[in-house]
């Protein structure tokens, strides 16, 4: 009586290999026992029978066990005993960010299925069901790709405003001593991205690229100027150097740049500093109107017209504050 001994279990897989196993004749042709183990995700079953049949497919037909070309069949014959192992192929759906396909498998664990498909997971990737889970026929395995992305953005930092009292300014008046400048800050945000869409973000770094500069504003503490008990409608003030002059007929026509007669209360200015026609108040001199110019009157210089030489000489040259009046 001939026997066939296999040193190792030899599997026949899908398609032609399974058909080859099914059609292979077994060495022993006598009436003998056969054990069949069928594995599937829904449960395992074992069948024992006696048969004269020599081909695997005939033995399975005798046991009323249907077989698909996708099933995995394993046959071992040793010492006159035949053992047939069948793993039923079941369909599962595999879904990734870019694919959704059907796959037939005889592996009933998620990790084994992904390994067979060559799908490798990153450190942040997720799988549903988990890798250790078993699957049922028709199950869906979701592979969710996740990774970290960093993005750096810049934003402006507001400047502060500091106020300083100034006894040289009249109450209610303000003067900007230093213009404020905004700073620049860079912020690095780390996003958790899932299948190309950001889920969450958190700040991982901040850096001040440029510090803001404060704005400094002086406010007046001096009492308002009054004339005959009336407060002057001051809209601005300039620190200037003044000179007294009179319309000497020897070198002057007696007419101003605006064509009016020069007299007390008329002043010569640089129109780039004080526009012609501006009404002024000059302490120690009084009300004045800017109607004249002069080649030497450049910048913060002002000439005050007097009616005669003695008044002009007595005034001489004086630094002072010129107040600009509103209408």
From TrEMBL:
GO biological process, one term: peptidoglycan turnover
One GO cellular component, as annotated: outer membrane
PROSITE patterns, alphabetized: G5 (PS51109)
Gene3D superfamilies to which the protein is assigned, alphabetical: Resuscitation-promoting factor rpfb (2.20.230.10), RlpA-like domain (2.40.40.10)
Stretches assigned to the G5 domain: 143-223
Keyword terms, alphabetized: Signal
GO molecular function: hydrolase activity, hydrolyzing O-glycosyl compounds
SUPFAM superfamilies (UniProt xref): Barwin-like endoglucanases
Pfam families: 3D, DUF348, G5
PANTHER family linked to this entry: CELL WALL-BINDING PROTEIN YOCH (PTHR39160), RESUSCITATION-PROMOTING FACTOR RPFB (PTHR39160:SF4)
Protein name: 3D (Asp-Asp-Asp) domain-containing protein
């Amino acid at each position: 009586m001939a026997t066939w001994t296999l040193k190792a279990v030899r599997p026949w897989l899908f398609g032609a290999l399974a058909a080859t196993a099914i059609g292979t004749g077994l060495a022993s042709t006598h009436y003998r026992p056969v054990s069949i183990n069928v594995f599937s995700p829904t449960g395992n079953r074992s069948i024992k029978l006696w048969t004269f049949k020599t081909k695997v497919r005939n033995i399975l037909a005798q046991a009323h066990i249907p077989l698909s070309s996708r099933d995995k069949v394993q046959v071992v014959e040793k010492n006159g005993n035949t053992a047939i192992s069948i793993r039923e192929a079941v369909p599962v759906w595999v879904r990734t960010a870019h694919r959704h396909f059907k796959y037939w498998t005889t592996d009933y664990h998620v990790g084994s299925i992904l390994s067979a498909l060559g799908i490798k997971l990153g450190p942040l990737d997720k799988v549903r069901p988990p890798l250790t889970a078993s699957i049922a026929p028709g199950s869906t395995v979701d592979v969710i790709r996740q990774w970290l992305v960093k993005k750096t953005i810049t934003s402006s930092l507001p400047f502060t405003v500091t106020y300083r009292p100034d006894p040289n300014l009249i109450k209610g008046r303000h003067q900007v001593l230093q213009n404020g400048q905004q700073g620049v800050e860079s912020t690095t945000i780390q996003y958790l991205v899932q299948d190309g869409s950001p889920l969450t973000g958190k700040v991982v770094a901040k850096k001040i690229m440029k510090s803001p500069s404060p704005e400094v504003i002086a406010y007046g503490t001096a009492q308002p100027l009054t004339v005959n008990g009336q407060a002057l409608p001051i809209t601005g003030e300039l620190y200037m150097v003044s000179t007294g002059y009179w319309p000497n007929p020897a070198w002057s026509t007696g007419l101003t740049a605006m064509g009016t007669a020069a007299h007390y209360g008329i002043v010569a200015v640089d129109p780039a500093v004080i526009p012609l026609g501006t009404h002024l108040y000059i302490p120690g001199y009084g009300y004045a109107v800017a109607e004249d110019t002069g080649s030497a009157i450049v910048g913060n210089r002002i000439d005050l017209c007097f009616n005669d030489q003695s008044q002009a000489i007595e005034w001489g040259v004086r630094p002072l504050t010129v107040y600009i009046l509103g209408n």
